[in-house]
């Protein structure tokens, strides 16, 4: 009930009002969040109103310690090939009914999903809400042109996400970059890693 009440308040009062409320209740946690990060703001408020404790006072699990041996591999392919595969994958998602899925999830159900639900912030879903907000149309009323615009945005966002993943893996100092088709190198490095413990 607390969660649904907070979600209703988010819809009626807006993200800024709830962020200000969190700021007054748990300033330490609020300062680590963007005011528009409604999912985490709602979560912190939910924890506070459920337990009476600030989320910032909870002990979180320690980071992985240095006494573990890791082998970090990241598999690459040519960027043009990667982007082409991303575009084709999103095309298939629409062919298999992505728009119809969103319509079913967001309309005509007792607990229809709304934009502020965490699952709806994922790439592939959030673009529908963004286009709906910009066009003034409900997702159920989208035509072929609307779906094409959403598809294009999902493809763009997925390519950008892939680019960020590449940058992240390159920043991991022990990470070894290997081409996805180089099966021999992948197998050799993994076998050598295991052999070092025997």
Q: Could you walk me through the main structural features you see in this protein, from its secondary elements to its overall organization?
A:
The chain has 198 residues and is mostly helical. It has two domains: 2-57, Histone, subunit A (Orthogonal Bundle); 73-190, Crystal structure of tRNA isopentenylpyrophosphate transferase (bh2366) domain (Helix Hairpins, Orthogonal Bundle). Helices cover 60% and strands 4% of the residues. It contains nine helices and two strands. The protein has a two-stranded parallel sheet. Helix 1 crosses helix 2 and helix 5 (79-95) packs antiparallel against helix 8 (144-171). 13% of the residues are buried.
Give a topology summary.
Blueprint: H1 2-13, H2 15-25, H3 27-30, H4 38-51, E1 73-76, H5 79-95, H6 98-106, H7 126-135, H8 144-171, E2 176-179, H9 183-195
Parallel strand pairs: 1-2
Helix pairs in contact: 1-2, 1-4, 2-4, 5-8
- Can you tell me the CATH superfamily of the largest domain? Crystal structure of tRNA isopentenylpyrophosphate transferase (bh2366) domain
Helix count equals 9
Order of helices and strands: HHHHEHHHHEH
CATH level 1 name of the largest domain:
Mainly Alpha
Q: How many structural domains can be distinguished in the coordinates?
A: 2
- Measure the end-to-end span: 55 Å
Strand content of the residues, in percent?
A: under 5%
C-alpha-based Rg, rounded: 22 Å
- Contiguous low-pLDDT stretches (5 residues minimum) are none
Provide the spatial order of strands within the biggest beta sheet. 1-2
Under CATH, the topology of the largest domain is which?
Helix Hairpins
Mean pLDDT: 89
Assigned CATH architecture of the largest domain: Orthogonal Bundle
The largest sheet is:
2 strands, parallel
Query: How many strand units?
Result: 2
- Which class of secondary structure composition applies to the elements? mainly alpha
């Amino acid at each position: 009930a607390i969660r649904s009440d907070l979600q209703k308040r988010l819809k009626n009062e807006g993200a800024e009002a709830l962020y200000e409320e969190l700021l007054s209740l748990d300033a330490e946690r609020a300062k680590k969040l963007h005011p528009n990060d409604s999912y985490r703001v709602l979560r912190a408020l939910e924890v506070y109103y459920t337990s009476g404790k600030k989320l910032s006072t909870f002990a979180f699990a320690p980071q992985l310690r240095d006494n573990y041996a890791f082998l970090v591999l990241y598999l690459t392919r040519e960027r043009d090939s990667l982007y082409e595969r991303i575009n084709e994958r999103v095309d298939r998602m629409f062919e298999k009914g992505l728009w119809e899925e969103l319509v079913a999830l967001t309309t005509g159900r007792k607990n229809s999903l709304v934009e502020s639900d965490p699952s709806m912030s994922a790439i592939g879903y959030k673009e529908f809400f963004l286009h709906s907000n910009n066009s003034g149309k409900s997702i159920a009323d989208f035509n072929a042109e609307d779906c094409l615009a959403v598809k294009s945005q999902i493809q763009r966002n997925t390519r950008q996400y892939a680019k960020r993943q590449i940058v992240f893996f390159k920043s991991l100092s022990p990470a070894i970059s290997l081409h996805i088709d180089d099966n021999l190198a992948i197998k050799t490095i993994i076998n050598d890693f295991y052999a070092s413990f025997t």
